[in-house]
Amino acid sequence: xxxxxxxxxxxxxxxxxxxxxxxxxxxxxxxxxxNIKLECEKIIDNIEEDEYLFGKAAKIGSAFDNTESNPSIxxxxxxxxxxxxxxxxxxxxPNFNEIFITHEFKNNNGVNRNGVLHFDKISTFKYMLYLTxxxxxxGALSVIPGSHLDxxxxxxxxxxxxxxxxxxxxxxxxxxYPELGYTEEDVVPIYGPAGTLIIFDTDLFHRGGLVxxxxxxxxxxxxxxxxxx
Length: 229
Known about the structure:
The chain contains six helices and nine strands; from the N terminus they run H-E-H-E-H-H-E-E-E-H-H-E-E-E-E. The protein is an alpha+beta fold. The chain is globular.
């Protein structure tokens, strides 16, 4: 099972990897994360610890919205190839781009919805950049590679049959779909040093994890959605 890519791989290689596994991972895509990290820390330092159970989180708008205030973030997430990969993989034209920052350092508030293995209710294409080294105990993104095909089917079934109101959308894998036969042994944590880039389709079964005492995870991610082209 090889979902790793390199920063010099062609768009065709990246798309083939996404189609097969639902994700593509480039270890140390960005060798120097310092400027982006400093901008993220400045934003996070001004956020209160309230709603986000794992620490602090911020939604900062699109890449365009951050052109002047956070140029390193804006430059990274406005690269044309990112939108081209999205368009080729989804056959949709991008019309939504939102950037999120999370700093996880707490583990005493239980697990929220994002910490349970799930597929997203709204199909989203994500670019996630690790800004700190993410090793065991750092709450790594964890996935079941290849499960995006099941996630696509289940999401479409819900949309077609409207079985449940969206607020009660059944998208927890182990709880709602034991018949699929997935177990914890199928879940793969994505470890990597700062600068690791993860590209994934949120039909993929995925979750975040709890950080251990004394550990942390600082990440930034871009969400892209589109309309049929």
